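G., the chain you wanted modeled:
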Amino acid sequence: MKELRACFLILGLLVALHATARAAQDGKDQGAEAPSETCSIEGTVVSAVTGERLKSAIVTLHNTQNVFRGAHASTDEHGHFVIKDVPAGSYLFRANKMGYVEQSYHPDPAHLATALVLEPGQKVQRVIFRLERAGVILGRVVNEDGEPLAHVEMEALVLRNRIINRRTGVAEQIASVQRVSTDDRGAYRLFGLPPGSYYVRASDSGFLGITRLPYGDGFNPVTTQGHPPAYFPGVSKLRDAQKIPVRAGQEVRIDFSLHTEKTYSISGHVRGVDGKPIVSREITISEYQSKPGTVFSSFMSELWTDEQGEFEFETVSPGSYLVWIMTRDEDNQYWAGQHVEVADGNVSGLQLQMLPGIEVSGRVENAEDSKPDFQQTRITLRADGLAEYTDSERADVQKDGTFKFSGLSRTRHSFEVRGLPDGWYLRSATFGTQNLLVDGLDLAGEITHALVVTVSSGAARVDGTVFDGDHPVQGAMVRLAPSSPKLQIMDAWTGQDGHFAMANVAPGTYRILAAPLESDSPDEDQDSEEMRIVLTGNESKTVEIQMEKTKR
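Predicted structure as tokens:
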């Protein structure tokens, strides 16, 4: 009997071992049939000047379609990095290290930076990033008596021509590259600057309206003194400022002396829809731009209304401002705002009345017999003056051609139409006597009209390719800017082969410009040379755009 039990035990062990071995083999076979689809990248980061391998540099990947997808790695003592298990896709690929200039991926050093496109299972090897030493602008900021000024915001700014303003068609953008504050000695240090030329701007935080939460029975506005923002070498307008050239690894010293100027206050009261004070809500003052859509680190300050719904912005410079407040509940958006001109005295007694957002209805019309399907068409409105702080409002066109907006603020809005059926273009857009393609949509007055969008068939088409020498440029933005303000600006992005296509273009004369996805230089734009094209109805044109080599 014992021998029988031993035989069964041995038999059981053999069966178990066989099953384990079979499972292991099945796992191997399955792994062979389904190899990993993820990608890997490896390479080195070196000094552009000495070739020295750089330890502790950071290499990052950001997916161009989803900013939340990406990966990063740090270089070892040999400047080597490896990034594994990266999903296939298109990525912005960059390397940076403290004291050096961040560099984008250049598969060919002689050509522009581009995105890194990974195919499933691809292994990219021998990538080399060559980092240049960063430049520095440093110095001290004092008042007219030579006393140091602390907490002055210092900015290194560049003027770029890469983005064409959608409303004006002007190719101009001002951007802040670096921003720091002065210490108790008035000293500042703008570091990490790529080689290039910069405007330097000094802004006294006290002057810019660092405001308090008001308490008590009310306000007693008084004229105060402050230091207005200044550009090197001490001018108030950017057009009069002087650029500061900075070479790789160079330190340039720029000292500022800020002079006192009279400043004023803006105060008032906010009431809700029910007439009661709006208590402990955030109210904003922002610089009112004469050219809507201008991108700039402009003046903006916020404070909270007090227990009586009152507010006061202190130390405000002469100029044009928009004072506004916005709230939202489950059913609607409420808004109040007023344009204010500050000249030579305090502005007091503003009465801001919260009103529910406006409902605007509209329709898409065409004067032709055919009835195109507009269900993929979308109308977009964005409040001018609030564009940097609020979301745009969108309305989908219904099957019968109608659309509706709700919760719009009572101010001027820019206007855009996207997703028209193939072969159709935007001909006009009106709101009573208002021409939306020229002036936008002004909702400050009484709302008694419908928004009428008129479209026509016979649209033109533009196809083309963007080149850097004989190299197609992937991910470049191409924009058509019409010579007439009555036509809509259009844009597109190039694919891997540098190709782009724009359908539904209104007949007319256009300027066409391309800008790359990535640029290592802060002020050398690497835009294309400007081209002009004339499009007639139903015409299709093919163009080649060459990136301008003189801006390297």
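The helical segments are 2-33, 436-439.

Shout if anything looks off.
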